[in-house]
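In this supplementary section we document a worked example of the pipeline. Step one takes a protein sequence of length 543 as its only input; no multiple sequence alignment statistics are reported here. Step two produces a three-dimensional model, which step three serialises into structure tokens for compact storage. The input and output of this example are shown verbatim.
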Amino acid sequence: MPHGFWALTRLTSRQFLGLAFFLREFPLRRDVDFHEWKPRIRWLGTSVDPARIGFWHAACNEAVVPEESGFLNAARAVESATDCGLRSNESPIRWMIARWRDRSRSRVGNFLMSSSELPCAASALPLEASLPTSVDLAQVIERTNRTKVLWLSFTGFTLSFAAWLMFGVLGIPIQKEFQFNDVSLAWLSAIAILNGAIWRLPFGMLADRLGGKRTFIGLLLFASVSSFLVSSAQSYWQLMLFAFLVGLGGNSFSVGSAWNAAWFPPKQQGFAMGLFGAGNVGASVTKLIGPVLIGLVPAAGVLGGWIPGGWRFVPFLYGGLLLLMAIAVAVIAPATDKKPGAGRSLKAMLVPLKDLRVWRFSLYYTVVFGAYVAMSAWLPKYFVSVYNLPLAKAALLTTPFIFASSLLRPFGGWLSDRFGPRKVTYGVFIVGALISLLLFLPMDVTSFTICVTLLGITQGFGKASTVKYVPEYYPKDVGVVVGLVGSLAALGGFAMPPLFAYLKQWTGQPQSMFWVVFGLTAISLVWLHCVVLRIRREEQQTI
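The serialised model returned by step three reads:
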């Protein structure tokens, strides 16, 4: 038995079986087609990229006897790698990956190995037609990294958004405990939204300059600590302070948008940024699990009070989940990040903010995102006060609005990729204005829920189409522009809940909250229509 057999013991069982299966099914011949066997070994251990097996194939070609069993071939392959410099305490897989990385940095074209480069090879291996080019490998790695960035940012944004807007449900039991009025409750929800708004521009710039990965991890850690603090608050003013701090996690939108825009090509940015933005569904998480957890966990807590109970358990849970998410991003996200703003001066990065178009996009986003944030926080209270529903049912009836506005966002991004963001946004404003008018009228709970859900659908499409504008007009300044657009929209979301409360107080009509939504939608529609008319005139003059 070749001594390479013992080196195989340092492989995981999954990697060993996969390698043995591969060598049994596809003996290492010089004429083997990479594209034939790549899908068959895709299930190897996570430390082995199928594309990288191509290098091992080249390195071990001369050491394999095709007629022998897959087990012996695997042993011979590892023995060959050992003869080529494998240290006794080093995994064969890791050694080959390290060698592949060293070679790939300095080589262009096909992976051609000569005897001087590989001591165990008797001669140069003519693999031009059988192995992938470095361009192929780069594309595989790039796609893998994009997928990691997209799903990590989506999950982290979902958790951050859940913690950011948790006071929409928690505010009601908090109000009972601390005995404050509806206006004070509105300010508690608004203060968290405020801190998730005012820092979006600087955080977007940080993501462009330092990379989305590091900035995202920092925000997740800060939001985690702040959530733990919320669970320990003992007065209304402590709640206000800790709610303000936890709101910083809301700035993860501008960071994640810049991060995804840096990794995805223009033709895929609408869908990718739409899928990332679907993390808005986090607003429904507290509404789904909050009332249940508040009822299940005793108010005195568990483990002798180390884990708080009642409403305090929810922010404590979010704190732990955000901490785990920060660790996951640090471990899984690509080690080398993309930084489109690296090396640029602050003045150069802020140049797009002089463009009136950016401020117009901010108004659009206030209609579809600012109103969404405000309504997500205010609707549970609306259902309780207007229809006398219990908190659990009020939260449940708010969920369809949140799901519609969040989960349809990727579809809105796809539509924007296909038809352009202007057409999608146009339709969003027309339909949204009509639905807002209907909501002026008193109606039963079923009709109200349906109308609000339809409004949420328009907001979901509109959020994706508005953000799609940004990389089309400002491909190198996505973080900055999205930061400003998102900041102003979130500021609108901060201002709306108190405005809803004051309008109800002044008019005695709870439906007055939709006066604000309709007014903003109508203004945006008129402005967009004027822009479209101007563009058409310019096109006619050009013709």
